[in-house]
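ugh ok fine here u go
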Amino acid sequence: MKTELVYSLTQTFEGHAQQTETGVEYWLARDLQHLLGYTKWENFLNVVVKAKTACEVSGHAVEDHFPDVRKMVDLGSGSQREVDDLMLTRYACYLIAQNGDPKKQEIAFAQTYFAVQTRRAELIEQRLLDAERISARKKLSSTEKELSEVIFEQTGGNQDFALIRSKGDQALFGKSTQAMKAQWKVPDNRPLADFSPTIILKAKDFATEITIFNAREHKLGSERAISKEHITNNEAVRKTLLERGIRPESLPPAEDVKKVERRLVAEEKKALKNPDALD
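structure:
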């Protein structure tokens, strides 16, 4: 396919993209019909039916990607009439292209176009999830530092902070820190939190925040009292997670958060050096 045609088709497909009030990108099926080279609506609907089946088989809700709508169209007489249409997500467009006539040049282009666009969305989503996990890890580090300071302020020492934190892990996971490290294959010199999923980081942070609050509110004056408080809070958080079907010790480990952070920093530097790559 010639470069000029690729650019032309890209602009055409992007030019027909619309957005809902909440910012969700979509294409109207009757627009996509012509973009993909189908002259008859009935023939195009046959492809849509196949795409809906593929959507259902893949485990996605059809109504989320192919919602029915009605729209007004102009008639030759100058009047208008209402016709059936569909709002198609990028994923729906991709499935339609995949089930279209491969001999059509427009279909060949759309298969690649929407595959790339879908992959781009997935990459953006993953990047946001990575950034959220890094943020949660930094927040936990800050909260644990504050707890250490509270212990020192109220007891005169914090040499047992690591033990208190470990008891919190035991209460949250139902297993010791070392047992979880062995299960997740965490190096001995690395914190368990660096390999914890975001949900666990936030759970630990919440329990620690409660410990800090109650330690100050009730003026807990011994490390033993603060340790007991921390165990109770982690047990309460664990109970909540279990009630919601989340068993902390059964979750798989997450990627080393340090590697994730380095990757995001490298991507940011690359983007700054090559801003055209963001278009």
